[in-house]
Each structure stands twice: as structure tokens, then as C-alpha cells.
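Go through the following before class.
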Amino acid sequence: MPMTEKELNCHLLDLLDLLEDLQEAAEIDKAENVLKLIEKKRKQINRKLYQKPSLFEE
């Protein structure tokens, strides 16, 4: 089923929320490798979220 841009953005924002929760736990445990991976994933998601032109043309 095709997804609208709004639905995709909501999904990507939910993933960013999840990464924030994982980052909080990784910081408590001082898990440096996990923190590096979280930052990498955050950059990848932001690249999709804010790409120009957007994934969907109006």
C-alpha cells in the first residue's frame, strides 16, 4: 500500500523517538559503540526526513 509523505514523516519521527530512548539507556551503561551506531542511524533518518526534493512530489 502506498504511503503518503505525512505518514512517512510520522514513521521517521517515531524512529527518532525510539533512538532517543535507546540513547538514554546506552548513556547510562556507557555503551560507546551503541551510541556511535545510534548517531549514525539518526543521521540516516534525518537525511530521509529532510531531503530536498522530498520523496513525494506534489
Q: What stands out?
A: The mean pLDDT is 90. The chain is about 75% helix and 0% strand. The CA atoms of residues 5 and 55 lie 7 Å apart. The radius of gyration is 14 Å.
